[in-house]
Each structure stands twice: as C-alpha cells, then as structure tokens.
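Exercise: predict the fold of this chain.
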Amino acid sequence: MITVEEEDGDTPAGAQLRAAQRAELDARYGNSSHEPGMPPSGEDMLVFVVARDDSSVGIGCGGLRLLAGNEAEIKRMYVIPAERGRGVSVAILRKLEDSARAHGIHTLKLETGSRQLDAVRFYEREGYTRIEPFGPYVEALTSICYARTL
C-alpha cells in the first residue's frame, strides 16, 4: 500500500529523496547545472508531499511552487527507481493536484528535460499539454514544459 502525505520538505525522507533526484539528474545530464532558475526552497513551496510504502519508507516526493495568479509549478517529482511502475508517481501527482485545488490553484505548470523521456510520456499520459517554455525555462535548450487546467 502506498500513502502520500504532506510534510516539510526538510524532513530526513524529503531531503534524501530530493538528493536522490538530484544525483539521478546529474548522471542523466552529465553535469550539475541542468536546472534553470532558482531551486525551490521551503519559503516558496506551497506544498511538499512524500510517498511511503507499507514500512513507512519514503519512496517518492513532489512539491508545488507558487507562480503568479492562480498558478503553481510542480517541482521535485521523483520516485526511487525500485518503485517505478507501481503507480507511485500517479499517487503523488493526484495528491499535488488535490492540494492545488484546495489552495485555489487553477493551473499547474511544470518543466522536465529532453533527457527525461519517461517523464514526458508520464505527463502526456496524465493529461498535461505541452506549452511554450515559461519563466526561467524560456532560454533553456533542454527544457520541455507542460500545463494542465484543474
């Protein structure tokens, strides 16, 4: 059974998952400078969630960063490799969408990269539509952006 709950992004599970995501992206892109713009912080994250398995181990995470108006950006979506293909990412995404609605957010945006084709397929399957790059991603050659109206 998978549970997804809001918690502080700086908990040990949240920090460990964010570090694992960073290491995986560093390996995929061959460098550590693959994220345009400012990394999200506890101050600008509206929501951070952690997915846990039956033993309460953190297996995935995701967050929402407020943008202008009634929009938010999905940040730090990640599931550990051993747990992929079990619906964890869908559970995290649904929790983020529900949290966004509860906070009056009408549109979710996100950025993924050209070396994350698994993420591209996932977001398209989940109803996100490709959009022009926004914010810090406008000049980023590897950025692929999506949005969904809730």
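Check your answer against the key: The longest strand covers residues 58-66.
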